[in-house]
Amino acid sequence: MANRLRKLAVIALSVAALGSMLTIEQAQGSDGGGGVASRAESLQGAAFAMTNETEGNRIITYRRAANGALDRVGSISTRGRGIGTDLDTQSGLELSPDHRLLYAVNAGSDEITVFSVNGPQLTFLQKVYAGDEPNSLTMHNNLLYVLNGSVAGNGIRGFRIATDGRLTPLKGSVRLLSSPIAVPGEVQFSPDGRALLVTQKTTNVLLSPQNAIDVFKVKSNGFASSLPKRVASHGLRPFSLAFRPDGRLVVVESFNAAPGASALSSYRLTSEGKLSVISGSVPNHQTDTCWVVITEDGRHVFTANFGSGTVSSYSFSATGRVRLIDGNVAFLGLLSQPVDLALSEDSRYLYLLLRGTGGVASFRIQEDGSLESLGVVTGGLPIADGASGLAAF
User: Fold this and answer.
1) Which of 4, 178, 201, 220 is the most buried (most CB within 10 A)?
2) Global confidence as pTM
3) How many structural domains is the chain composed of?
4) How many helices (H) and strands (E) does the chain have?
5) Chain segment 121-164, per-residue pLDDT in tens
6) Is 238 within the bounds of a domain?
7) Which helix (H) or strand (E) is 22 found in, with range?
């Protein structure tokens, strides 16, 4: 009996020691950039949020549970700097379609950082110069374009993506926007990769139209047209956009943060690079709507409303018409400052970065477009101090 107890004690100590080793290795994987995620973790998914801190930009990593809820794992440095204030753009973090790579802007040090992804674990691969104040990213096949938001030189520039995810500058790809004071909100490839769209938030320009979206045609060699087509936005201050695979898209309009005035428009992008309005400025009665996502099935659209502390839900028909379901489908608090949105791979779950409270909110998306709260995870992110960028799968 005594021998059995001694054997059990040895086994228990061995298991405990092994558990400690695994805990240390997992912590090093999330905080130091190494480690291997389990197959179960990889299948369930992960989320990533960016701190955008001036003293050193970091990515906060989260594990997604089977029920969609998030658990904070750790953080990893981008080895670059943020700007400390909100990027005020969409897509500062970009996941590759196969979820093997993550690209992050370092707006304060003018770089893009590349990570390999394995579940919630990130490994640093590369850091490259990306122009003046990079703040939004978009990918199509082996191309990546970055948006430069500096007033001194706002525009776009391209990169080739190698098979291992590393970036090589596309020499001669720099293109200026149609206005030198565009204050751009996002760059986005069309689903077929033949166009690049850039929203312009400045409305007091002497150009026509005053509220505009730039459309660049993209050639087969990956280069954008020398000059963009300046296309009218239906509503005031177009901020960000999202495409559906059929080429129809939605654009959120903040209407200069006027109380209760925000809206969403839908368009069809023509082969000539024009935007044909389908639904014009459908209001959500919220304030300062700036971020938007479309579910994988293309049926629902969600917007983050910075000034109201809310999320809005729209339906998106097969013909491209949008209809408001609920302007306040989720309320996070007046000081929550909701910014970037992200979806799980199957669009069953919605994630929302809360700049004001330094957290990430999780929701289960219901069939009718309503949201079930799964809680808010805090820690690691700055509070009311510029966190920008969210990606998930």
Assistant:
1) 201
2) 0.89
3) 1
4) 2, 29
5) 999 999 999 999 999 999 999 999 999 998 878 999 999 999 99
6) yes
7) helix 2-32
